[in-house]
Design goal:
Its EC number is 1.-.-.-. InterPro entries: Aldolase_TIM (IPR013785), OxRdtase_FMN_N (IPR001155), Oye-like (IPR045247). This is N-ethylmaleimide reductase. There is one protein chain. This protein is an alpha/beta fold. The chain has helices at 3-7, 42-50, 80-95, 151-170, 185-190, 205-208, 210-223, 246-260, 284-289, 303-311, 322-326, 330-336, and strands at 13-15, 18-20, 24-26, 56-63, 100-105, 123-124, 133-136, 139-142, 147-148, 175-179, 228-232, 264-268, 294-298, 317-320. The protein contains twelve helices and 14 strands. Helix 2 (42-50) packs parallel to helix 3. The longest helix has 20 residues, at 151-170. The radius of gyration is 19 Å and the shape is globular. It starts with a helix and ends in a 37-residue tail after the last helix.
């Protein structure tokens, strides 16, 4: 690939108040390395610091409340201990010259009673079980049957998003990303396959987008437009996410988001962790035109495809997930056109440093902190 083709991908980009040294984003990646109580660890700080050369890091999905938890080993942002743990991470990344957002997450029905306070049922827009699995005690198990949220509880969850945003900024994050993708709670409200409510949060597309709108309004008011992004996955069926008309739904969703003006729209194009072309009828190009701030493309991008996408003006930023797992120096490898390390799927979730902070770099990592254990 020619140097000219990659120049734009490796060029500076202004995202709100942030100057990104390149347009390569580290996508949020669940790795299940948090300590008891969902507390981030020094090992996590080392992991993120190793990847600080990314234009932007979006830290892994992080539950906004105890009820938002759906997997073992995932971090939270609702206790003092969790905030202190994340301060280690943000300090390490900033010391290494990086920029980092936190992805805010409520799993909704993608959970298990053993992960919920007092072994209660997970919550969802409607009491419709998902055909999905979660990760508990080192193995995958079927999720539990949910119960439908009461109207007053919806307001409480919106407030939890706002508090999580405040906590994230207090912990030193440069901003937050609202996770509205992959079949989790906000996505469950959006889709008619998981939302059968008959109140103002269900039925029409306008009603089904109400919860997303209220969350985004609250988070933006707390942090400002320039510190808030949002992620969607229009055609992905992961976690049993289905809608009868995704084109109409997400056309309206993006129009709503465009009016709210978050700093970026992060779109999983295709099936999450799968093929990009699962629904050829869905027009991602048309979707991009509806959003007038930064468009971040994601899913299955190679260096060549990402460079072409940026050069064609089809995206402003490109997020990479899997490649960052095994290549902490991904930006440097792209710049030098060096081959990539292959990731070890057996170490994706849980464990320690192996398959987490021990992947080799092509040279010394420009910056690293902390402890491998």
């Amino acid at each position: 690939m020619s140097k000219h083709t990659t120049e734009l991908l490796l060029s500076h980009y202004t995202l709100g108040d942030l100057d990104l040294p390149n347009r390569i984003v580290m996508a949020p990646l669940t790795r299940s390395r948090a300590a008891e109580g969902g507390v981030p660890t020094p090992l996590m700080a080392e992991y993120y610091a190793q990847r600080a050369s990314a234009g932007l890091i979006i830290a892994e999905a992080t539950q906004i409340s105890a009820e938002g938890r759906g997997y073992d080993g995932t971090p939270g942002i609702y206790t003092e201990a969790q905030i202190a743990g994340w301060e280690l991470v943000t300090h390490a990344v900033h010391t290494c010259g990086g920029r980092i957002f936190l992805q805010l997450w409520h799993v909704g029905r993608i959970s298990h009673t053993s992960l919920q306070p007092d072994n209660r049922a997970p919550v969802a827009p409607s009491a419709i079980p998902a055909k999905a699995q979660t990760f508990i005690d080192g193995r995958f198990v079927e999720v539990s049957e949910p119960r439908a949220l009461e109207r007053n509880e919806i307001r409480e969850i919106v407030d939890a998003y706002v508090l999580a945003t405040r906590n994230a900024l207090w912990a030193g994050f440069d901003g937050v990303e609202v996770h509205a993708a992959n079949g989790y709670l906000i996505d469950q409200f959006l889709r008619d396959g998981s939302n059968e409510r008959t109140d103002e949060y269900g039925g029409s597309i306008e009603n089904r987008t109400r919860f997303l709108t209220e969350v985004m309004q609250g988070v933006i008011e707390e942090a400002s437009e320039d510190c808030v992004g949002v992620r969607i996955s229009p055609v992905s069926s992961v976690n049993d996410a289905h809608d009868s008309n995704p084109t109409e739904l997400f056309s309206d969703v993006v129009k709503v988001l465009d009016r709210l003006k978050p700093v970026y729209l992060h779109v999983i194009e295709g099936q999450t962790n799968g093929p990009r072309d699962i629904d050829p009828s869905f027009d991602f190009h048309a979707l991009r035109q509806k959003f007038h701030r930064t468009y971040m493309a994601n899913n299955g991008y190679t260096l060549e495809l990402a460079a072409q996408c940026i050069e064609a003006g089809d995206a402003n930023l490109v997020a990479f997930g899997g490649p960052f797992i095994a290549n902490p120096d991904l930006v440097e490898r792209f710049r030098a056109n060096e081959p990539l390390n292959a990731p070890d799927p057996a170490t994706f979730y849980g464990g320690g440093a192996r398959g987490y902070t021990d992947y080799p770099a092509i040279g010394n990592l420009s910056c690293s902190v902390g402890s491998s254990s």
